User: Fold these one by one.
Assistant:
Number 1:
Amino acid sequence: MVKANSIPRVWRERTIKYRLIGGKCKKCGKSFYPFRRICPRCGSEEIEEVHLPREGKLLYYTVIRAPPSDFEEYAPYVVGIVELKDGTRVLAQITDVVEDQLEEGVDVEAVFRKYREQGKEGIIEYGIKFRPKT
Amino acid sequence: MKTSRQVGIVGYGAYVPIYRIKNQEIARVWGKSTWPIKEKSVPGLDEDSLTMAYEASYNAVKRAQIPPEEIEAVYVGSESPPYAVKPSATVIAEALGITPRLIAIDMEFACRAGTTALQSVIGLVGSGMIKYGLAVGTDTAQGRPGDALEFTAAAGAAAFIVGKGEEALAEIEATYSYVTDTPDFWRREGQKYPRHGGRFTGDPAYFKHIVEAARGLMSEAGLAPQDFDYVVFHQPNLKFPLRVAKRLGFSKEQVSAGLLSGIIGNTYAAASMIGLAAVLDKAKPGERILVVSFGSGAGSDAISLVTTELLEQKRSLAPLVESYINRRIYVDYATYAKFRGKIMR
Amino acid sequence: MRKVYVAGIGATKIREHWEVSLRELLVKAAQKAIEDSNIEKKKIQAAFIGNMSSGVLQGQEHLGSLFATWMGIPGIAASKVEAACASGGAAFHSAYLAVASGMYDCVIALGVEKMSDALTGDVTAALIMADDQDYVAFTGASFVGLNALVYRAYMKKYGAKQEDIALFAVHDHKYAVNNELAQFRREFSLEDVLKSPLIADPIRLLECAPTGDGAAAVVLCSEEYLKEANNEVKIEVAASTLATDILSLHDRDDLTTLQATVRAAEKAYKMAKISPSDVDVLEVHDAFTILGVIHLEDLGFAKKGEGWKLVKEGEIELGGKIPTNLMGGLKARGHPVGATGIYQIYDAVTQLKGEAGKNQVDDAEVALAQNVGGVGGTVSINIFRRVR
């Protein structure tokens, strides 16, 4: 059994995962998720912490039918790239959908959901997903 | 029971999952020819009472229009927390950005925990100890496969933020609680499904406690059924709330706005609170609402509220209960069983 | 920098090696390469071992000393090189630098992966470690799933059809039939590919490289040592480059091009003093059909959005404009991830040596092997030239 998750690892990123906290580069103007101290594009170290918008549109998605072992009980599920209203792109699960009725370009909004459990006895990991806007 | 200073609801929010299963589908599997309600809500694989509580709370914060960090208490009432030990309140607070200067606690009292959470927060704000407090009722109720409860045990959440009277969209007029040791429904430690006493859950439990709490409140506050524009009872099915309304002298019209169990099922700790949210979605300023919860074990909280001018401008700041009811994905029993962990892996 | 030569190559068959351990795979490949080089085992001064997942899938790290011990050459400089699926290419790059710098005269670059001991879900979990574990893996995205997003983006941007892109798999299988080392030596029709099970929409099973076990090795040496080896055909490393790109797809502006390929290729063409039209044999990292198509474009063989046309029009066939993956590619030769980069070099050099049998490109002189880690987070490019 591959075990890449741990308790401190989940704990230390909780606010970033729970609240969509990203970074905005003061130099090149690009924002990104999750937050990090250096811009992945231009290398600038002048980064502002930002609460990213909770709405956007679904750019691309896929249906995971052969998941990693720690996600097997959730299959099939949808993972997609969402472009938030400020242009930031995030990778996230798309939830509350019927897989074969989903379309690219649909407006989505952030929700707070369970991502996985560290086994039946372990801790539960939560984070932001997106669902089609109603 | 009254607070020493005037307090009220400054924000409210509800949540119902998107999935539904029809009672007819459950009846098909278990060979039943009749069923109590039309359909019930089903939480998705990535939902639990904590995530639902978050969304209801998020909606309440939006309506309250206050900085989340000014909320100084988070009380979560549920009988289906994802952890037996480890609070949901801290996760919800962290996700809302309320931590760390905060009173946070999970509460359990079967289907009554939500209103008791609300009552506690009313007390904290009413005493001047905190500025704002958040109370949530949330449940992903489990019914044993094939049991009568399986037709109604549903999922949902509702959240209320309590603050000073002058900021309220509905002022708290009075509360009253009535509890006894009555074992009508329970779940022992380590058991997945609850047990109940069949018909014993009726007269000595549901009806007795609701009637006593409602009458107690009306008597203390000097009110009568006709003084209320709306009344919301705990709703384990459609029959009980209508029958108890009649016993207390309320009309069907007073009950109907907050009676959702026929289309979302019994959302346990959230049931009367989602009903209240649905009433607030409709009520005009200056209307009086009575909410009476019931939790097995057993007890009822009665709360009387009067809406204010602020209600109508706050209403549109978050989704209405109706919008959650109208988004529906129907699932068959097999998918429902998968979602609810009824299939052994 | 001095010139570096390939003195010998060796590889095991790629398959589920139920009876062979990771360390034995390494030894078998090394023995073959050393035998092929005519250089004494004791002359090897350093080993660079490309491997991605020995830790999570085998519970085995410290491959350098493990290899030196099992090979009977303790004392050499040896360590593991890891760059996800580009580990093999990266190990070769390190080996190249070791000789080119003058530090060593004779080294061995290896690639090894032992995947079949693990359950499928665990292999899937191991492969997504190529991306950000704290965020990307947390979403439940599989590695196939990330490539599916690239697939969708490509089809949307260029209006390409899956039936055209999927031809890459048909192509690979056709040529693997003649490769004794290949994992799947059988042909599949386009219909077979398009009807195979969905893994991560729109990617189907037969569009994915399989998992398997294997090890491959290349002996590199200086000109001086090559004389001793007395090889019939001299193969020079004309270029060896390695480039990275932003790790995760959502941080990139364009999903349909791998910037790391563009960067590594630009440097490599310059280093080898050639242009794409000089390449006689091409090995691209087609872990998924869509990647094969994108690589043809990023390496300069087709315009953006038109890579699939090269496949459809037969230009990547034997006798085509740019014969590609003639030993079966990742799809059919197999893809023991950390070993793949070395297998590609093995296949490219086999062509330059004129030993590719029925799949031999006439008078092949220049071969390019492109090895990709993650979804293009790392790209290794190595160009080989037969010296007359």
Number 2:
Amino acid sequence: MKKILLSLCFALVGLASHAAVTATDFQYDEASFTTEFQEVTELENALLSSNFSLNALPESDRLAGYMQAMASPVPFSIDDMDWTAFAWGFCCWPVGFFVVGINSNKTSDQKLSFWIGMGVSVVVSAISYIANPNPFGTTGM
Amino acid sequence: MPYLLVIICSCFLLASQAAAQQLNRIQSDFSVKSKVKGSEGARLVMGTCYYELGSHQIVYEIKFPTREIWIFKDSIQLVVRNDSLIATKPAQMRVELSTLHLGLTQQLAHYGLKNSPFEVESVHKDKNLTITTWKPPSTMGSKLGKVATSAEDKKLQGVVFYHPKGHILRKQFFKSYILVQGYPFPTEVVDIAYDGAKESLQQTTYSNIKINETPSRNLYTYSPLYVPARPSTTKR
């Protein structure tokens, strides 16, 4: 009996998940949507009326705050890491310095990845030196 | 009899003229606003976009927040600054499914699904909407969910993408249609993507839409003048 009830429940859940599409699926909260974009819409209108001249934007605290947020760079995250540049920094930073570090064709993300790679290399080397200051086992005899 | 010939010839001439006036390029000012629902920050990108049939690329001339050119081609996005390619990224959109392509090829009414492997599963009316449910090809049934389109007055109103298990993954709404050279084109596209409790919102508006115009600077088939030996590739 338990098994039959369980099967029935699964069948009902399955049916519910494949229920017919209704007009309700094609609705969204328009008022909430407009509110979410209220500030950015003000900026959009200001940009349009000033023909994209940022200096001509009206002085408004909210807009100024928004502009500051837009101007500040997006924080670097692990997704932005260029692993080739990182490897140059980690494995062979003297060559990597010329290949990535001062190469004008490289992006800021690549350069930062190189410096992170080099930093990690220095830290790892320091830790291994502190842990084992005499890696070759020479005793000075 | 000669009159009949003249009439037939006139019909052919008119038909050939109509074919010559078919839509093949579109240009529009645009703004894209996006944010995660309930979060503090929002993103605004504004500029002008260009699309020509056969070029297989959409060119966005960005005027805000930075002056750049973005080229969406195949599955990549090229970022160009001062005519020099500075980055390539995986594209977040497909040219064939863009509003510009669907509008220009007059496939917007069915969201291009008629020419896809999806098949019509059902058509029914609910309130004032004609709702068409499209099922994925049987070979992809476990990976792809159904897609539903709704139309009002033969104009696409919304598209809903479902997970194979039945829950909604994404909704798109096409609003504020205007007639451009006799063809309906939406000037507002609302996009809501669901990822668990997270809702990503996006609103795209089009204005100053021009069809078949030749601008002073032809950006329809633009490609960067300078391409470094190895432009950066980012995962974003």
